[in-house]
Amino acid sequence: MPKRILFSILSLVCLLHCRSELTLTAGDAQLQFSGGRWLFHGKPFTGRIRQPLPDATRLTEYKDGVEHGQQTMHAQSGVLVEERFYQQGKKHGVHRGWFVNGQDRFYTEFSDDHYAGEHWTWHSNGKVAEFKKYTPDGQILVHKHWRESGQIYRNQVFAVQNTKESGMPGVKLCNTVKDTVGSR
Q1: Average pLDDT, the chain
Q2: What is the dihedral of CA 105, 87, 93, 145, to 10 degrees?
Q3: How far apart are CA 119 and CA 158, in angstroms?
Q4: Rounded to whole angstroms, what are the CA distances from 60 to 12, 42, 63, 144?
Q5: What is the Cα–Cα distance from 170 to 76, expressed in whole angstroms?
Q6: Number of domains comprising the chain
Q7: Do 112 and 77 fall into the same domain?
Q8: Tens digit of each residue's pLDDT (9 = 90 or more) over 136-183
Q9: Last residue of a domain, one of 57, 91, 125
Q10: At which of 91, 125, 151 does a domain end?
Q11: Which residues face 67 on adjacent strands?
Q12: Burial letters for 47-78: b for 16+ Cβ neighbours within 10 Å, e otherwise?
């Protein structure tokens, strides 16, 4: 094998190895939280922090001491149950969650640390539990809830004028009064 190719391969291996991020475990004695940032040896931490939880493990990417990049949570079985994204310490992008069996648990869109777009949650039986729709700047437009049976019990539509909520047109009681309070 020519020296040039061998040198290129070794350089690539070194580059990939050298770029690997530092991963620490929460509670590491050299890791301190101060001024809203994680510090490692007194300097803003860049790398990943692994946080063991009672029933899962969370792994979060940091840059300059704040969340930046992907955060994942895996159940003890190793199954991915959450995936979130951050930019400079703020929630951003699509955040997803799943039950251990792989069924959807939540889907939420964020922009600059506030809700933007759609938010969905599901019951463990796979039926929709909640839906919310937000404007790009985080104002709620629609809010709906369903029971595990699939019956809707909340349906709110908000009017937005001049970027301020101005009421709740479209709110309706989804059950009869008799169903709600029961018969006596």
Answers
A1: 85
A2: 50
A3: 15
A4: 26, 19, 10, 31
A5: 44
A6: 2
A7: no
A8: 999 999 999 999 999 999 999 987 665 454 444 445 555 544 554 454
A9: 91
A10: 91
A11: 62
A12: bbbeeeeeebebebbbbebbbbeebbbebeee
Q: Are 95 and 86 in contact (CB under 8 A)?
A: no
- Helix H segments across the chain? 3-18, 177-181
Q: Residue 66 in 3-state DSSP?
A: strand
CA distance 146 to 174: 10
Residue 102: inside a domain: no
- Res. 15 pLDDT band, cuts 50 70 90: very low
Residues 78 and 31 in one domain: yes
In whole angstroms, what is the distance from residue 135 CA to residue 169 CA? 17
* pLDDT at site 16: 42
| Same domain, yes or no: 136 and 184 | yes
Predicted model pTM: 0.76
pLDDT of residue 172: 52
